[in-house]
Amino acid sequence: MTKSPEHEHPVKAFGWAARDQSGHLSPFKFSRRATGDKDVTFKVLYCGICHSDLHSIKNEWGGTKYPLVPGHEFVGEVTEVGSKVQKFKVGDKVGVGCLVGSCHSCDNCARDLENYCLEAVGTYNSNYYDGTPTHGGYSNIMVVNEHFVVHIPDNLPLDAAAPLLCAGITTYSPLKYFGFDKPGMHIGVVGLGGLGHVAVKFAKAFGAKVTVISTSPNKKSEALEHLGADSFLVSRDQDQMQAAMGTMDGIIDTVSAVHPLLPLIGLLKSHGKLVMVGAPDRPLELPVMPLLMGRKLVAGSCIGGIKETQEMVDFAAKHKIAADIEVISMDYVNTAMERLAKADVRYRFVIDVGNTLKAE
User: Fold this and answer.
1) What's the pLDDT score for residue 359?
2) Which of 116, 235, 265, 318 has the highest count of CB atoms within 10 angstroms of its CB?
3) What is the reported pLDDT for 279?
4) What is the pLDDT of residue 1?
5) CA–CA separation, 180 vs 250, rounded Å?
């Protein structure tokens, strides 16, 4: 007989879950496993709302298993550690991103790239090794193997640090891997949302010249004056786009809606790289001829390994980089999802789980 979510594990837990493709979130009682030898248990204090959460609760990518407790960028305070835990102690400020498990034996895991492990276990909407579903950070408590926990430095505000565990590593990792972290590079950032605004901050900290590319002219002053970008292109303005042709070494494309790639490829210098980090729910059209005529590259990148995630958080603390956030209460989450679908947030919603999640 299948156990109910409340009785799968010994530790009572409480969060908000989606039950069906409507994506409506509501209070949900479930359970977490007891703290194992190598586990860290922590009280969740803040959880960012990622665009992936919106896609997942509505099953827009397919494969959603309900009930679903979303959230894969969250932080909190350690309340218990297992007997073999070496890196964390009670009272530490910690975070968890998109992963809670991997095989630890494949080539990717051996290279600290757990994010590309074929057996990686997602923080939510996956099955853990015991066969029970994983539930994310829209909840009061988390239990996770210490390998997948990162330290949050004291000088990073916890609420604004939470989105770094997804949005931060999603942009930091390709900037590093594709060589966009060298001073003097000219880097474009497409889309000025949760991912894009953090990409601008990291690229500037690496010493790059940064151009924001957006469909919204009204984001120009925000990009230049607040985020420190060097220039701004309205992607629908053909004159502006034409004038910038062949000027960029690389582009980070954060847009998760269907959009044309040809104008972006045109902005690249020869040997330039267009790196996709957004995840549209339908295929994009890729023109090949412009790639051939400049040996240009279109690539993808998905979050980062745990070692690099810790490196990213430490870099952010050193350079005083955090997400620009709107802190909300747990009971506002459905309204926040509606606003996120309309891109009505500057730039990341963060749920104040610690103060506003009330058990029923």
Assistant:
1) 75
2) 265
3) 87
4) 53
5) 7
Shortest CA distance to 84 belongs to which of 149, 128, 141, 40? Answer: 40
Contact 241, 214 (CB under 8 A): no
Q: Residue 7 above 90 pLDDT?
A: no
Residue 277 has a pLDDT of 97
CATH class of the domain comprising 167-300: alpha beta
11-166+322-352, CATH topology level: Quinone Oxidoreductase; Chain A, domain 1 (3.90.180)
Is 11-166+322-352's fold the same as 167-300's?
no
Query: What residues does each domain of the chain span?
Result: 11-166+322-352, 167-300
Burial zone of 259 (CB within 10 Å; 0-12 exposed, 13-18 middle, 19+ buried): middle
CA distances from 16 to 23, 24, 98, 166, 252 (A): 11, 10, 18, 20, 33
Mean predicted lDDT score pLDDT of the chain: 96
